[in-house]
Amino acid sequence: MAQPIITIIGIVATQPAVQTTNRGTPYAAFRLAQTERRFNARANRWEDGDTSWYSVTCWRSFGENIAQSLQVGQPVAVTGRLKVREFTTDEGKSRQQAELHAITIGHDLRRGTSNFTKVSRPAAEFVDEDAEVSEFHNRLAERHSNTPWSEPTGEPEQSSPFGTTTSDEQADIDKRAA
Predict the structure, then answer these.
(1) How far apart are CA 97 and CA 32, in angstroms?
(2) Residue 168 has what DSSP assignment?
(3) Three-class SS of residue 68?
C-alpha cells in the first residue's frame, strides 16, 4: 500500500542528530510535536488541545543539513511519507508510533524569519565513461583479431552510388536490368 504524503506544521521537540545505519548511510532523526489550537469563544482566548507526536527521519545529506539547521523549539513545516508502526512495550502494552520520512522541511515563516545558506559539497570525481567504453572495445577487438570470424569471407562487396551492396543484391540488380 502506498504511504500518504502529508505536511505537518509543528515544533522541533528533540535536537536532530546525525547517525549512521549499519551499512554506513547517514541520517538525522528528531521528534516533532504538533499541538491543536482552538479558539474558546466563551473565554475569548486560544487554548491548546491534544498534542500529536511524530518521529521524523531525514536521509543522507538532507539529514546532515537538518542537523545543522534546526534547533529544539523552532516551528517547522515537514512534508513526507507517513507510516504508522505498531510495537509492543517492555511491559507488554501495544502501541502505535507515527513516523514521517521527510521529503522537505522548512521553518514556519509565519512565526519568524530564516536565512538560507546553500551547501557546497566537493564535486564527484569525473569518470570519462566514453573513453572507458572505447578502451574496452579496443581491447576486445585486439583479443579477437586473430579468430577465424574476424576475417572477411566470400566475394568482396561492390560499390554503388547508393552505398555498398552485397554480391547477392548486385545479382538481383543485374537480373532486373537484363
Answers:
(1) 12
(2) H
(3) helix
- CA dist 70 and 52 (Å) reads 19
Largest CA distance in the chain: 109
What is the predicted pLDDT for the residue at 153? 53
How high is the mean pLDDT of the chain?
81
| Cell 572495445 belongs to residue | 137
Say if pTM beats, i.e. exceeds, 0.85: no
Q: What is the pLDDT of residues 35-56, one digit of tens each?
A: 999 999 999 999 999 999 999 9
CB of 84 within 8 A of CB of 97? yes
Domains of the chain as residue ranges with CATH: 5-107 (2.40.50.140)
Find all residues with CB under 8 Å of 105, minimum gap 6, and list them.
Answer: 56, 58, 66, 70, 76, 77, 78, 79
Residue 96: how many other CB atoms lie within 10 Å: 8
Categorise residue 134: left if φ over 0, alpha if ψ from -120 to 50, beta otherwise. alpha
